[in-house]
Amino acid sequence: MYEIFTDTAANLDCSLLEELGVGLIPFSFYYNGEEHRVTSLEQFDGHAYYDMIRAGTDVTTSLVEPQRYIDGFTPLLREGRDILFVGMSSGISGSYASAEVAVACPPAGGPAATLREEFPERKIRLVDTLSASLGEGLQVLKAVEYRAEGVDIDTAADCLLEGRHNMCQVFTVDNLKYLKKGGRISNLKAAVGTVLQIKPLLKGDPEGKIVCFAQVRGRKKSIELMAEQYDRYVEHAECETIGIAHGDCPEDAEALIALLNRNHPPKNIINACYEPMTGAHVGPGALALFFYGKKEFRQATK
């Protein structure tokens, strides 16, 4: 048996992770000069958090240091357990690279030995999900399924690495300034969108980076286009759990759910408020959809 780990960006409640036997690498966010580390999403007040951002509080994030992964993995490695880590996309964060450093590639002045050097008899597999939020979280749940079915760690990791290309993630935002701040969209497009109420439709590309593939006028149309993408690319919806994450806009999430249930109702829907780290980059009013579907989704330009 092996241990599964993920990070806060997976957007899964800590009580669920504990129930499923999944360890957590906590991420941090910062405002008013203080660090806030998320160890329990159940205690995260999404409404208050996004209201704070709406009021003008500047929230930032930072790279997770390798030591945090070392501290999380080491106790279980010492107990003779193997580790399968399912992490946030390397295309949008350097945190996955920090996990790689901790496991196999220490920088100058870093740990005296990598985890693989210190525990050569143990297997440590890292999976870059090419996703974030519930796109990552659904892959964590898939890892749990594999383990429960008796799939060994190497086969599970290889299946996840192959299946990540089928994870479709599409989202829209209510205000483009947060994407602009994070360098996700050009200044010109951001300015036009602010004036004309143009809403971008964004998705994860084959490298796990965020790209804009469409722009529509108005919030309602953007939600409708998300549902159209789902209808076009979803596979075996009746057998799958899908994810919806929102930046304190539960009514829009419910509107999207109603559209998804028209033609291809899924087996289950996880509907959650965006966790604070990813939420700081997409902002209040962000609405995202995650589902397993056709690989062509990541390559498609519209």
Which features does this protein show?
globular; 302 residues; Hypothetical Protein Tm841, Chain: A,domain 3; Rossmann fold; alpha/beta; 23% strand; four-stranded parallel β-sheet
Detailed description of the structure:
The structure is a single chain. With 302 residues, the chain is an alpha/beta fold. The chain has two domains: 2-165, 3-Layer(aba) Sandwich (Rossmann fold); 166-299, Hypothetical Protein Tm841, Chain: A,domain 3 (2-Layer Sandwich), CATH 3.30.1180. The protein contains 13 helices and 13 strands. The strands form three sheets. A six-stranded mixed beta sheet has the order 10-9-8-13-11-12, sandwiched between helices. A four-stranded parallel beta sheet has the order 2-1-6-7, with helices on both faces. A three-stranded antiparallel beta sheet has the order 4-3-5, with helices on one face. Helix 3 crosses helix 4 (95-104) and helix 6 runs antiparallel to helix 7 (153-163). It is globular, with a radius of gyration of 19 Å. The mean pLDDT is 91.
